[in-house]
Amino acid sequence: MDERAWDAVAEHFDEAVLNVPAHDRLGLIKRTVEQLAVESGSAADIGCGVGRALDLIAPHFATVYATDISRDCLAIAEKDLAQYHHISFIHADLSQGHGLPDQVDLVVCINTLLLDPLDKREAMLEHLCEAVKPGGHLLLVVPSLESALYVSHRLVRLNRQIGMSPRTAQQKARREMSPLDMGIVQVDGVPTKHHLNEELQDLLRAEGMDVIRAEKIEYPWSYVLEDPPEEMCGNQPWNWMMVARRRS
């Protein structure tokens, strides 16, 4: 999606885009930001959207930057977070550069590395890591490819439970996918990159980052299944959260 497409989403962002921080039921993002806090330091939310994560970041840093490709999303974020006078809102396309005036102690990036074209994703990850000070940290959340496959498995089971034949159950659950080994999954008709845990760690290491830990950020079944049964049990779908430190 380009700037115009994200501007079109801005007014109904909450309906159109999963609120990852709000559905982080274990509070992993909040806890990690607090652990990495530098009260006299700086942080950035890159790809901030309408500013959902900024309430978690702003209280713990003296200087905060919020960047996004959408001017309309930035305007909403700036209005909603007017109580924080130390946040600078910056219009920037991450595929062209991080847009920050300086490197920061912590970069937070939640579900921004979504683009299908590999060259743009490579550039975005490179710019993300360049925004981190040597010794600083990156908190990165991305869609999980393992989760996408798990959702398909659960949908097949549901279809079988309501009496579908094995063939029909699998056909109904089949996603419209690009080649699976590339991790591109159609989400509401948009080709969206999903990452494997090991794939993401490999990419971060190549950018000079040491991965400290990987965590699952779970979200409700209602975001991937239409009218899921109330008795859906077991694991929920998830995004990957990576916490990485930039080498000195």
Task: Write the topology of this structure.
Layout: H1 3-10, H2 13-16, H3 20-23, H4 28-35, E1 38-46, H5 54-57, E2 61-68, H6 71-80, E3 87-91, E4 104-110, H7 118-130, E5 132-143, H8 145-161, H9 166-173, E6 184-187, E7 190-193, H10 197-206, E8 209-218, E9 238-246
Parallel strand pairs: 1-2, 1-4, 2-3, 4-5
Antiparallel strand pairs: 5-9, 6-7, 8-9
Helix pairs in contact: 1-6, 8-9
Evaluate the radius of gyration. 18 Å
Query: In one word, what is the shape?
Result: globular
Give the total of beta strands: 9
Average pLDDT confidence is 92
Give a description of the structure.
35% of the residues lie in helices and 27% in strands. It is of the alpha/beta class and 248 residues long. 35% of the residues are buried. The model has no long low-confidence stretch (mean pLDDT 92). The chain has one domain (3-144, 194-246): 3-Layer(aba) Sandwich (Rossmann fold), CATH 3.40.50.150. The protein is globular and about 60 Å long. It contains 10 helices and 9 strands. The strands form 2 sheets. A 7-stranded mixed β-sheet has the order 3-2-1-4-5-9-8, sandwiched between helices.
